[in-house]
Amino acid sequence: MTLVVKIGGAAGMDTHTNTIARDVAQLIAEGERVVLLHGGSGLTNALCERLGLPVRTITSPEGMTSRYTDEQTLQVYAMAVAGQINTELVALLQSQGVNALGLSGVDGRVLVARRKPVVRSVLPGGRVQIIRDDYTGRIVEVNATLLNLLLDRGYTPVLAPLALGTAGERLNVDGDRAAAAVAAALHADSLAILTNVPGLLACVDDPATLLRDIPAAGLDEAFRYAQGRMRKKLLGAQEALSGGVARVCIGNAPLRALLNGAGTTIYR
């Protein structure tokens, strides 16, 4: 059984992350093959502010939000995700007896992406701005051979969402969609996306409106409830299911509880 887990990327390892590490250790002890992919928005924002760089976001015409990553921001992003966060998470997992191995998507061509030649951003008032210096990309290839080799040898890959561009450049890639691409490439049984909300809510301010079970055929309807970053998570879920993953679990419950239906489960 193979499980891909996407977790956030806070600057420090908090109690929630410690719980995830313990759950991962238990799952591996029970025979599960686990790949982790983490984010890094919080620390990247903090480092940008410390360095006097503006933190900017882009809203696409489809309503998706993402980080505006110019060359300077890319350097900070790489320091955050492939440096501090990745090594902290690997050390935490090692302390739980997990033989974790940290990689960015650049290493061994684990993640290859195509840079977007232009990015369209909707400005206040509805005007669309064309951006040409954004270093973000869409994943086109996952080195499943390398990941399977590591898993077969008893390692637990911990991936930072930094991809190798087709022209050899580093690219910022969305963590949720990167996790979906990895899950599909590994023919994973499950993808767990851990976030700071209970799951997909019909009413964004009311946890009692949690949508627990969504069949793949109902995803288009579910998108109308998604706001902000949740839209990217649903898009990642859709891509994972299309790639053969059996189910995607989204929520803020402990990992084991999430896998047992505590959040939103989207299934084929």
Q: What does this protein structure show overall?
A:
By secondary structure, this protein is an alpha/beta fold. The chain has helices at residues 15-29, 41-51, 71-95, 144-152, 175-185, 219-222, 230-242, 255-259; strands at residues 2-7, 33-38, 57-59, 65-67, 100-104, 111-115, 119-122, 128-131, 137-142, 156-160, 162-165, 170-172, 190-194, 213-215, 247-251, 264-267. The strands form four sheets. The protein has an eight-stranded mixed sheet, sandwiched between helices. The model has no long low-confidence stretch (mean pLDDT 93).
**Mind summarizing the main beta sheet?**
8 strands, mixed
> What is the CA-atom radius of gyration, in angstroms?
18 Å
User: What is the number of domains?
Assistant: 1
Distance from first to last alpha carbon = 17 Å
CATH architecture descriptor text: 3-Layer(aba) Sandwich
The shape is globular
- Per DSSP E runs of 2 or more residues, the count of β-strands stands at 16
Order of helices and strands: EHEHEEHEEEEEHEEEHEEHHEHE
Q: What's the helix count?
A: 8
For the biggest β-sheet, the strand order reads: 5-10-2-1-13-15-16-14
Strand content: 25-35%
What is the fold-level CATH name, i.e. the topology?
Answer: Carbamate kinase
**What structural class is derived from the secondary structure elements?**
alpha/beta
Q: What level of helicity do the residues show?
A: 25-40%
State mean pLDDT (0 to 100 scale).
93
